[in-house]
Amino acid sequence: MAMGAVLSSRTFASPLSSSGKQHPPQNNKCTCSSPPTRDKFSRLTTRTTIFQVSNYSRSTSMERFQLSARFHQPVVDSSTNYLTRWFYNANLKRRRIECFLTSDPINTGWLKPRRWDNFTSLDTACVQPDYKIPVRTRADCKAEQYEITGSPLSPSDVPAEAVLIGDTNEISPWWQQFPKRWTVVLLCFFSFLLCNMDRVNMSIAILPMSSEFGWSPATVGLIQSSFFWGYLLTQILGGIWADRFGGKVVLGFGVVWWSIATVLTPLAAKIGLPFLLVMRAFMGIGEGVAMPAMNNILSKWVPVSERSRSLALVYSGMYLGSVTGLAFSPLLISRFGWPSVFYAFGSLGSVWFALWQRKAHSSPSEDPELSKAEKRYILGGSTLKEPVTSIPWKLILSKPPVWALIVSHFCHNWGTFILLTWMPTYYNQVLKFNLTESGLLCVLPWLTMAIFANIGGWIADTLVGRGVSITNVRKIMQSIGFLGPALFLTLLSKVRTPAMAVLCMACSQGSDAFSQSGLYSNHQDIGPRYAGVLLGLSNTAGVLAGVFGTAATGYILQKGSWDSVFQVAVVLYIVGTVVWNVFSTGEKVLE
């Protein structure tokens, strides 16, 4: 930029002059620029374009060279008809220059240059320049990494025609430069935030609803479980639909479906219990497609070097959705009544869907606004394959890594669902906390999981970036996700103070969140084309573990103690660790 200021036909106050004296304008005379030559300096000066004085840009070309050169003012000698060069001595040492251009009207002017490609001969190169609106320009240059020595230019040294060095392209706003792949990731994050907000609001609203309609505890349990009827139904179907029709269509359908079911829940409850059960099952149908569809779309948009942290961010949306739902539901119910929580949370889905339709695409090849550079980075030299038309079930179920996913997901969710479902009861019966304290402490594991899921994601991607194999990274992260909870649940039966018990529970859930960079990321590793189906298969096993584990815990507590509950979970965590480390892989096994 500093070189551009020196070569410009405008008059400048030299940045090297302590007085900041303004040079008077040059008289109009027949001058021209020398034709382009093949030396380095000419290549810099002949490929640039004119821009307005108010623009600011920085020339980074100078940062790549240590130059020792002479600046020249070419003129035409009419008697000999050849170009003569007057040189300005400058010694440049390696530093960076930041230039800030300002202008104000005054009685001086600048001359419009002529492009070299318009000149047909040296005779036509000598032209009378056009006089433009008078301006005076000052260049304030701050040298930071380049040391420049030399005497300031005199008025006669400034060429009447010059070519400005620098990139004149306007810089796009930051929101246009934000990577499109992370726009998709953030939209998936907010969809999962809404998913758990709409799911947990019933756990709070069920209390005033049961009082109003006179429901028994058995009826309350039936209502709570009806959600899983639809949720189990669409796990595998959601994966098939996503792999065949694209993640954008399926995830958008899911959010709209469960949002409508959420808004209609108060009406169904007032009509009758059967209608409420059907509406809760419908809501489960919508939420059941969310995870397979998300997994499908991110398998196409996120490169392997960013896979762990992107999935960790999306799944942390579920945890933060639970925190948000548990925090705001009591406030809405106390001020506006229990129906308000369903209306408020359900209506947010329409806002998300509008953004989703405008910004998201099922794959990079379908996005017309995606830059070529980002597309190359996402694909990593490979090409996107056509959508799946048929599912090779026999091939999928014959792969040991697929069964490692299914078994590990079952073992993982058994312990996770037990802790999240029975935690308030444990706080109340064992630690003797009241219900209010128990409710507040229930938020702590969700916050811990949200934080540590993202920490684990960054650690996993860092290891991949440093050359650790994907297989080893997945095994390391999932081993932490299994053995961490096993350790802290074992310690939980030994502690005697409530504070230590709460700390053990929080640490158990925090280490559990490392699974987002383990088995939850592995579906895209072993079969990116079938990522939706693979997640549907393993998550079906995970949901079944939650259903059976929750029921089995109640049976164990009737016959035994909490120590027995934790021991069963610890055993399954160890089994999952062994299966995962023996049979899992980070390599692609399904084409």
Strand element count: 5
CATH topology heading of the domain at 177-383: Growth Hormone, Chain: A
CATH class of the domain at 177-383: Mainly Alpha
Profile the largest sheet.
Answer: 3 strands, antiparallel
**Unreliably modeled segments:** 1-149, 162-168
**End-to-end Cα distance:** 51 Å
Strand content: 5-15%
Give the name of the CATH architecture of the domain at 177-383.
Up-down Bundle
Q: What order do the helices and strands follow?
A: HHEEEHEEHHHHHHHHHHHHHHHHH
Spatial shape: globular
Give the overall pLDDT as a whole number: 75
Quaternary structure type: single chain
Keywords: Chloroplast, Ion transport, Membrane, Plastid, Transit peptide, Transmembrane, Transmembrane helix, Transport
InterPro entries: MFS, MFS_dom, MFS_Na/Anion_cotransporter, MFS_trans_sf, SLC17A9-like
GO molecular function: L-ascorbic acid transmembrane transporter activity; phosphate transmembrane transporter activity
Membrane topology: Multi-pass membrane protein
Explained architecture:
The protein is mainly alpha-helical and 591 residues long. Among the domains are: 177-383, Growth Hormone, Chain: A (Up-down Bundle), CATH 1.20.1250.20; 392-590, Up-down Bundle (Growth Hormone, Chain: A). The chain contains 20 helices and 5 strands. The chain has helices at 2-7, 40-46, 122-125, 174-177, 180-213, 217-245, 247-271, 273-288, 290-301, 307-336, 339-359, 372-379, 393-397, 400-429, 435-465, 470-492, 498-512, 519-526, 531-559, 562-583, and strands at residues 68-77, 82-92, 97-104, 136-143, 148-149. The chain has a 3-stranded antiparallel sheet with strand order 1-2-5, with no helix packed on it. Strands 3-4 form a two-stranded antiparallel sheet. Strand 1 and strand 2 form a beta hairpin. Helix 7 (247-271) packs antiparallel against helix 9 (290-301). The two termini are 51 Å apart. Residues 1-149 and 162-168 have low confidence and may be disordered.
